[in-house]
Structure formats: structure tokens, C-alpha cells
Design brief:
With 324 residues, this protein is α/β, with parallel strands linked by helices. The chain has nine helices and nine strands.
Length: 324
């Protein structure tokens, strides 16, 4: 079985990519990991060797072990990476990842904490996705109604499936369901003029028009809103994990996801605990897998952060921020 994982990153998100790779390898991942990037490669990735076999200009590869390889692919697109996920996966499937049985996308601020075999089984159940912290969005919520009205003239007919609103930081797809990527890509292209172009995003970088931003607009979270709409267009099965899947609520976290700007690699445990902010599941797992085989952090930094998180967790047993 040919498994392909991919992510997109730039800037300081290289830290997250390194730890994501480490956590996957630790849990038994076998296959090819493709990291699309802009800007210079980080120090820990510079041991990669140029790989002309991938037919991708500037591509380089690290052979992690006999069953897993990491490929770095420089990206030329001007699109914001959050809007380019479906495009990237389709480019891989038409190029270096041609013949893949399963395709998975992970945001670079996710840590893998599960048995890899579970994910191979999961995608056989349908398009594998995780519930977002802002779920549910009900059938006749103005946003869902708005999606139906917006996409209908473009030939995309949405049929309500579930009130679950999914997070676009992860998607797992078996080859029988690859068509969801064409639908997601096409619908992103339809939305592009409305948000000012695929180079615009609600995240850092070029901002969308003011009237398109916010939690109550149709495409305030561009890639995520369009993915949720695309799942209502798609005729195949969808397999959901709940909010616990990404560590948003208590339960068995599959892939803890660091939402917001406080990523684990910039997190300051002792400063934050004084503000009543306790260590998250994703922070603890991030530093657990920060060491090897990729090395985005020094051994001394890892030891220091693990100690600080332990101290902050102890303090949290006695002190928490009160409700406003």
C-alpha cells in the first residue's frame, strides 16, 4: 500500500513540520512525506539531497529509514498556503505521488499521537476529517444556507449531510475518494474572486476584504468553509472524528492541533500559567516528539521546555484563570 502525507509551510512553521515528521515515524508511518515550502530550508532539513527523480524543480529528499522518506518541494504559487491544499494534493497525485493508495494532508501545527494503522483503516471508511472547535453548524444556519445559494449558480449543489463542521487542518483520503479534491479545488477557485484572490487569507499575510472576515461571514475561514461546503457536494462517504480528535475537548486525541497564534514552539509555559493559561495537550505532545529523527530543537531546549511544562502543569492544579 502506497501512503502519501503532505503539508505546506513557510517561516517558523518549519519547527512544526519537523515534530510532525518525528511523531509520525514514532507511530509507525511508512511511506512518503512531501513538504511544500517557500523561503529557505531550515537548518535541520539541509541534510536533504537533491532528488531529480521527483521531476520537481529544486526537490530534495531525506531518507529517514528503509520505509519512510521526506521530500522538500519548493513552491512557486503566489496563493496563500491555506487556500492551496487541494491544489497541492492534486499536483502530487499527478506527479511525484502518482499511484498513491492513500493521501493525507496535515497542517504543520499538528502532532501525531495515534497508531498509524488506525489512519490506514480510517480512510477506508470514507473521507476522514475531524470536527472543529466551532462545530456544529446546523442545517439552516445562515452560513450553510448561504453556501448553498452561493455555489448553486456555479453548478455545485449542496445537500445537507451532518451538522458537524470540520477543521481543514487534516484530511485523509483513500483513492476511491480522490474526487473530493477536485471538488474542493474547483470550489476554492469559485470563491477566489469573492475573497480577493487565493493569495488572500484570514491568517497572516495579505488580508481578505473586511466584509469577508469574521466568524459569521460565508468564507471567513476560506479553506475550511469551502471544505465543509465541498463535503456536501461530494456523493461518497465521510468519516468524522469528534472534537477530541484534535484535542479540542477531553478524550483520546488522535492528532492534537495547535489553534491560534500560540504555537508550541513559541509557547512560554511559565509566563502563560501566570495568566491562567494552562499547558495544552498539543504542547505536551509537541515537546515529547521534538528530538529525533528530525532535529528542529536542541536537546537543551527540549529538556528546558519539558521541565517548564511540568512546573506549569503542577501550578495549574491550584491556579486557573477565572471566568469573566
Amino acid at each position: 500500500m502506497k501512503n502519501t502525507i503532505c503539508t505546506l509551510f513557510e517561516g517558523h512553521y518549519h519547527h512544526g513540520v519537523g515534530v510532525l515528521i518525528n511523531s509520525l515515524i514514532d507511530h509507525g508511518f511508512e511511506g512518503d512525506f512531501y513538504a511544500g515550502y517557500r523561503g529557505p530550508l531550515s537548518w535541520w532539513a539541509k541534510e536533504s539531497v537533491f532528488n531529480t527523480d521527483l521531476n520537481w524543480i529544486g526537490a530534495s529528499t531525506i531518507v529517514v529509514n528503509e520505509k519512510a522518506r521526506v521530500h522538500f518541494l519548493p513552491m512557486e504559487t503566489k496563493a496563500h498556503f491555506t487556500n492551496y491544499k487541494a491544489h497541492f494534493m492534486l499536483e502530487l497525485l499527478a506527479g511525484p505521488a502518482k499511484g498513491s493508495d492513500n493521501m493525507y494532508y496535515f497542517d504543520p501545527d499538528i502532532v501525531f499521537t495515534s497508531d498509524w494503522k488506525y489512519f490506514e483503516n480510517w480512510v477506508t471508511c470514507g473521507v476522514a476529517v475531524c470536527e472543529d472547535v466551532n462545530s456544529p453548524v446546523w442545517k439552516n444556519n445562515p452560513r450553510r444556507v448561504g453556501w448553498r445559494e452561493f455555489f448553486k449558480p456555479h453548478g455545485h449543489i449542496l445537500e445537507f449531510r451532518e451538522p458537524v463542521y470540520v477543521n481543514a487542518g487534516y484530511i485523509g483520503i483513500n483513492k476511491k475518494d480522490f474526487e473530493i479534491l477536485n471538488i474542493w479545488k474547483d470550489m476554492m477557485e469559485v470563491v477566489a474572486p469573492r475573497i480577493g484572490g487565493l493569495n488572500k487569507s484570514p491568517l497572516a499575510g495579505e488580508q481578505m476584504p473586511d466584509e469577508e472576515q469574521g466568524p459569521f461571514t460565508l468564507f471567513g475561514k476560506s479553506d475550511q468553509d469551502v471544505l465543509n461546503a465541498a463535503l456536501e457536494v461530494y456523493k461518497g462517504e465521510v468519516s468524522y472524528a469528534g472534537k477530541e480528535g484534535m484535542g479540542f475537548v477531553s478524550g483520546a486525541a488522535l492528532i492534537p492541533h495547535a489553534l491560534g497564534s500560540m504555537k508550541p514552539w513559541v509557547y512560554k509555559p511559565l509566563k502563560e500559567i501566570l495568566n491562567g493559561v494552562t499547558p495544552r495537550v498539543v504542547d505536551k505532545h509537541y515537546w515529547k516528539y521534538a528530538g529525533a529523527p528530525m532535529n528542529p530543537h536542541s536537546a537543551s531546549q527540549i529538556r528546558s521546555m519539558k521541565l517548564k511544562i511540568k512546573i506549569a502543569s503542577l501550578i495549574a492544579r491550584f491556579y486557573r484563570r477565572g471566568e469573566a
